[in-house]
Amino acid sequence: MSVAYQQISAFKSYSSWGKDSAFQFVRPNSTIAHNRSARWTAPSAAIIPNFHLPMRSYEVKNRTSTDDIKLLRLITAIKTPYLPDGRFDLEAYDDLVNMQIENGADGVIVGGTTGEGQLMSWDEHIMLIGHTINCFGTSIKVIGNTGSNSTREAVHATEQGFAVGMHAALHINPYYGKTSLEGMVAHFQCVLPMGPTIIYNVPSRTGQDIPPRVIHSIADSTNFAGIKECVGHDRVKEYTNNGITVWSGNDDECHDSRWDHGATGVISVTSNLVPGLMRELLSKGKNPSLNKKLVPLINWLFCEPNPIGVNTALAQLGVIRPIFRLPYVPLPLAKRVEFVNIVKEIGRENFIGEKDVQVLEDDEFLLLGRY
């Protein structure tokens, strides 16, 4: 007998979605007559099996509460450096993380867009999360980017990430193969049971906004830590007025989001380079002069899609090898010269590393298409 699906409860309004809005499937009553000539109609909404049990552990050794994650002020989307054969340069990576810790960062995102998780295999991805936890988990919060546009992959990667000890997960809405708002909620509800979770809204990359009604529908989850929001100050204010924790996803807006609109902090790219200054920007009161001082650097970093700028900058500072996994390539020579001038203007002492900033020539970069 074929398996038929029976809708148990109807979807409610977006604002009231929750556990009671899930769908489960059951075998039909054997007494039901089957009319082979009847016209088949598709289910009116997605079906969410309720028999899946999260693969999770309640061992407390490395566990962090959702409330602890909500307190993080400066979270750096950490860069992943490479060896000449394309494998991870763990020595350089460890130095980068140590410099974040020394300069007051509260957390790191491992394998995010800046860390080029999109260019990693899942084996590499989970290994790097585990390595970061093993080496630095007692000194800084480790948030693994285990999101995916495939719910199956997101569930599996998140299970593995928490199994190796990450403190929290970062999850994006399904991109490219976009889904409905109901699908977004269903996607997030599949990963939220596993541990503290930050949702990431960046429509410029995903092609689809996560509207507030989706966030409000999952906000009651004990594992929902907050949202990394890239839409702007009005959205930040809407969330903070409703008690939802927000991290700005835009370095150029984070000062005003923090001090004027109630954001807790920022998940930052710029802090890869100047973590001390970014910490000061977010923790010592309004500082428009420092914010203005950092604007040329932030604009430079995002003159091309991230992580092209930060990869180029870190290589010029001498803290990573000048190696790129394609399709990323370094900024052109004129921009590399401009970066040297920006460093001098802000002060070399405010940047990570100890080597003099250099203008690297084109032939000093290694671009890898196979690794």
UniProtKB/TrEMBL annotation:
Pathway: Amino-acid biosynthesis; L-lysine biosynthesis via DAP pathway; (S)-tetrahydrodipicolinate from L-aspartate: step 3/4. GO terms for biological process: diaminopimelate biosynthetic process; lysine biosynthetic process via diaminopimelate. One of its GO terms (molecular function) is 4-hydroxy-tetrahydrodipicolinate synthase activity. Its EC number is 4.3.3.7. InterPro entries: Aldolase_TIM, DapA, DapA-like, Schiff_base-form_aldolases_AS, Schiff_base-form_aldolases_CS. It comes from the Eukaryota. This is 4-hydroxy-tetrahydrodipicolinate synthase. Belongs to the DapA family. It comes from Deinandra increscens subsp. villosa. Pfam families: DHDPS. It is an enzyme of class 4 (lyase). PANTHER family: 4-HYDROXY-TETRAHYDRODIPICOLINATE SYNTHASE, DIHYDRODIPICOLINATE SYNTHASE. Keywords: Amino-acid biosynthesis, Diaminopimelate biosynthesis, Lyase, Lysine biosynthesis, Schiff base. HAMAP family: DapA. It catalyses: L-aspartate 4-semialdehyde + pyruvate = (2S,4S)-4-hydroxy-2,3,4,5-tetrahydrodipicolinate + H2O + H(+). Catalyzes the condensation of (S)-aspartate-beta-semialdehyde [(S)-ASA] and pyruvate to 4-hydroxy-tetrahydrodipicolinate (HTPA).
